[in-house]
Amino acid sequence: MRSRTQPLLELTMEKAQTPLTLKISADQPGARISPALWGIFFEDINFGADGGLYAELVKNRSFDFPEPLMGWSRISPSHARGELSIEHDSPFAPANPNYLRIASRATAPFGVANEGFRGMGVRQGEAYHFSAQVRSVSGSPALRVALYSAHGHLLDSVQLPDITSAWTKHAAALRPASTDATARLYILVEGTGVVDIDMVSLFPEHTWRNRAGGLRADMVQLLADLKPGFLRFPGGCIVEGSELAYRYQWKHTVGPLEDRKLVINRWNYEFLHRPAPDYYESFGLGFFEFFQLCEDIGAQPLPIINCGMACQFNSCELVPLDQLGPYVQDALDLIEFANGPADSTWGRVRARMGHPEPFTMNMIGVGNEQWGPQYVERYQVFAAAIKARYPELQLVAATGSDATIFPNGKAEIEYLWSQWRTLQPEIVDEHFYRNPEWFAENANRYDSFDRTGPRVFVGEYAAQSVGVASPDNRNNWKTALSEAAFMTGLERNADVVVMSCYAPLFGHTQAWQWTPNLIWCDNLRAYGTPNYYVQKAFSTNRGDVVLPVHWSGGPTAAEPACFASAARDELAGEIILKVVNTGAEPVTAALEIDGANRLKSTGLALTLSGELTAENSLEEPRKVAPVSATVSGVRPAFTYTFKPHSLTVLRLGEEA
Ligand code: AHR
Fold first, then answer.
1. Residue 25's Cα: distance from chain center in Å?
2. H or E segment to which residue 535 belongs
3. Which of 227, 215, 371, 355 lies closest to 299 in space, CA to CA?
4. What's the topology of domain 40-55+207-539?
5. Architecture field, domain 21-32+544-653
């Protein structure tokens, strides 16, 4: 008899004495499972927001990139004569002071084209809503707006009438004649004259919940399908900024779009191997949209705030302790923005944006991947101020980056944990970017964890097939399977692990900086990786209370290592068993379900399996995806064969 709470490598060296048995103690329910155990982590990396989830198709819509015409090109047919200039006198929006002046001398239409985010994805016959702030400076110019395919075919065009000398929002709908993933938007002046233009926008009509200026419906649907317990936002290193000037400032991300001041995205220049010089944050997806998204998909919001530290992989810039006031105030104001009444200062801003009722925010993260005594000092300032005003709010503290990739890794983490055991934030965030073997070997990480300290949030993790920050990392089944093994350990230890999420979330196939990612997209399509389907299998089969599992007998040296966790779904009246077989051979196990109420004779099996190298893709989005089947012959003791390289979720009903 042996227990599966030992490292994988030790397991495989033992010889079998008796048949492999997995006992589930249905009559000994353990810890309650946090509804937030499985969540998601959004960061604007890999064009996850602009060019991704945020459905705006125009890049650099307000001409405020440092190169104001980045993303725009001059359209000047042979007979056209004209000039383009960037102006900033009496702008439409002072927060984004630049605008484009187009002066045309009439011989042919003259103007600009926007390239979108590696093109614009448009679908045949669907409506695309164009809008722009426009004013006429001289002459009697007319404006024509058109969509062209990358190959130069006109997809649709419309003329904007009645341009006056005052900034006015003009709008028109375009319906492309064919579907194109790399279309371009043209803005052409017809006739002689000078026109100013700003806040140029093109949005699909069909967005998530068909909100004007909203989010990409297919991408949100993939998130909603995960039924995530929480959504961590906005990062990630984005929170910190490579320098403090570029940190995430939530107040710049709310209110009218034109008042949201753009900033360079830190992933623009982070990696020499994947530079993205056109990557900026427009904040069209800002903190209001974040809270709204959480509400839409039933996820608890977990905002992360800058704690007066820039990224410690970059400048390490620090705000002196006696100058933290405005940073702390930002945190307090964010809480008021989320939870305050509609007549409070920041609650009023939320109400004006269309949500008078508070959003329910119960927790906040102080800092992202910070470490060292400087972090602990700053954390204490924030914690004191937040708890004084909002004692019920749960605080999330960090333990730096993964031990293997930050200076003095292990010692730093031990130092932070010792501090947190004293300072008692409710939740402590750990990050793991390791190889697949590490994840399987660490399925027992929390079995012997100190249970007297704060609860654990595994706030970023992903198996790296090659190595951290390598452009060669793949989202293959091997990585997903190892994560599944690890996740059984999170679930078994639900008394100490209360939250977890994979990182990063999105990658644009033409514009990514980091891999692996949970979901990949192009301008028209999005798909879940094998890792996504593992997350989904766990999150949609969470259960309410842990049931103890115990392996005995096997394995022989030839047998693969298996991992398991079990839970009871109280509402459905079902026992949920998750088994991960990381080996290349099928494993037949005797399942003994002790103390269950009368079991129904048929149950449901959800299985994910595949070649270890198998990947999903835009063309084959479900190469690795769950397959459901009915299981018959369910009894308190029955045998089940787990496929090679598989995750199986068995749902076994109990009679009421
Ligand atoms: O997930 C990508 C990055 O990895 C995050 O921004 C950061 O927190 C971690 O180092």
1. 36
2. helix 530-539
3. 227
4. TIM Barrel (3.20.20)
5. Sandwich (2.60)
Computed on alpha carbons and rounded to an integer, the radius of gyration of the chain in Å comes to 27
Q: Which helix (H) or strand (E) holds 239?
A: helix 237-240
C-alpha pair distances (Å), 623 with each of 241, 300, 479, 608, 614: 37, 31, 15, 10, 7
Pocket test for ligand 1, best of 431, 475, 513, 517 (most atoms within 8 A of CB): 431
Q: Is 402 in the pocket of ligand 1 (CB under 6 A)?
A: no
> Which residue owns the Cα nearest ligand 1 atom 8?
236
512 in contact with ligand 1, CB cutoff 6 A: no
Residue to mutate, 460, 473, 502, ligand 1, most ligand atoms under 8 Å from C-beta: 460
C-alpha closest to that of 185 among 199, 201, 209, 166: 201
Query: Could you tell me which of 294, 299, 289, 303 has the C-alpha nearest to residue 331?
Result: 303
590, β-bridge pairs? 21, 639
Question: What percent of the chain is helix, strand and coil (3-state, nearest 5)?
Answer: 20, 30, 45
CATH 2.60.120.260 residue spans of the chain: 72-204
Fold of 72-204: Jelly Rolls (2.60.120)
Predicted pLDDT of residue 13: 41
The rounded distance, in Å, linking the Cα atoms of 325 and 246 is: 18
Residues of the chain with CATH 2.60.40.1180: 21-32+544-653
Q: CATH 3.20.20.80 spans which residues of the chain?
A: 40-55+207-539
Do the Cβ atoms of 356 and 340 come closer than 8 Å? Answer: no
Cα of 250 vs centre of ligand 1, distance in Å, is 19
Q: Which protein residue has the closest C-alpha to ligand 1 atom 4?
A: 236
Sequence-ordered alpha helix ranges (H) in 314-456: 325-339, 345-352, 373-389, 409-423, 436-441
Give the ligand 1 atom nearest the CA of 41.
1
Dist. CA 236 → ligand 1 center (Å): 5
Q: pLDDT digit string (tens) for 110-163?
A: 999 999 999 999 999 999 999 999 999 999 889 999 999 999 999 999 999 899
**Pocket of ligand 1 contains residue 583 by CB under 6 Å:** no
CB atoms within 10 A of CB 566: 27
Among protein residues, the one with the nearest Cα to ligand 1's atom 5 is 236
Active site residues: 369
CA dist 230 and 232 (Å) reads: 7
Mean pLDDT, 10 residues at a time, the chain of 656 residues: 34 58 97 98 98 98 98 91 96 95 91 98 98 96 95 96 95 98 97 96 98 98 98 97 97 97 96 95 98 98 98 95 98 98 98 98 97 97 98 97 77 94 98 96 96 97 94 98 98 98 98 98 98 99 98 65 96 98 94 95 98 98 98 97 98 94
Interval between CA 431 and ligand 1 midpoint (Å): 9
Task: Please state the atom number of ligand 1 nearest to the C-alpha of residue 504.
Answer: 1
Pocket test for ligand 1, best of 41, 265, 369, 531 (most atoms within 8 A of CB): 369
From the list 54, 42, 47, the residue with the least C-alpha distance to 504 is 42
User: Are 32 and 491 within 8 A, CB to CB?
Assistant: no
Q: How far apart are CA 594 and CA 637, in angstroms?
A: 8
